[in-house]
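I would love for you to help me understand the pair of lines that follows before we discuss the fold together.
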Amino acid sequence: MNILKFGHIRSVATIALVIVLVLAAYATVIKSTKTANDKNTINLGYVETGISGLMVKIILDEKIHHSLKLNINFFPFNNPKALNNAVVTKQVDVAMATGANAAAKMIETGHDVKYFFPNVLNSVSLLVLKNSNINSIKDLKGKKIGWYGLQTSGGTGLYLILKELGYNPDMDFKYVESKPPTLPPLLSRGDVDAIIIFEPFVSKLLSSGNYKEVSGPFWKEWKKKTGVPMELSGFVAYDYWLSKHKTEARRLVSMWIKAVDSFKIAPIELLKLHSRYTGIESDEGFKLAAERLTGILVSDWGDIEGAIGDVQRLLFKRNIYFFREPIGIIEKIEPETIQ
């Protein structure tokens, strides 16, 4: 009896051991497969509020990334500086909303990154309250401007325009730095006299009837002066990532272009559908944003490559942003042929 019981126990133990070994082997296979898949996954950072958040939503809804065989983890950030820091610290492989100026600054401080496709023209505008006595930049001299920092395309764009108009940005104006969504309340409370803000916040604020545009959008202001537009943001990644993932980079560009094409077909409908990412609620706001966003979403390089180079040289020449002349910022990536 005892011998039989012992034999039974030994058989059960043997079976249990086999099951454990099989499960362990299976787990190892799954882990190895997951690791292999992770190597093909792109960690893509973007600024959630605003244009890039809207475009990511379109990409996800239409599964554009899947149609291009891209495996992407989308990581939202609440402001441009946080996204730029994520690029530098390698929390993301690619940033979808980082300006060429920020990329050049990263290079200057020892980070080998490249700007490989522009996606949005500089939609930043300088706004004041509608009932304000300020009607021009001249009226702002000596007053406070709310912004989200010089280390952004909006900040450097403002400095460049002020320099072009003959002002000394550091001496003639005061600045209060804050995150973009908190800038309008600063203006409403009187903590600042004007703010710079990008689309779609500009359309939302102007359509409310409580704000007016003193200067902007910056891309248009710059084109009037130079004949070429000023960019706001684009795709940025480290050199080592681009060298190993040229195909993925081309598909990311294709993904963006497909999303832009979708937006341009039905801008008002998509703005209404995804109003959570823009904050726009009124019909006037949807109409204004459809008009302004359609003009700033980029679907090819056009003359932007030269415009970026011109702006970088001017920023250095005028001692606005760089300690040394920025070089090697762009690695021009074209999209895959879109069917």
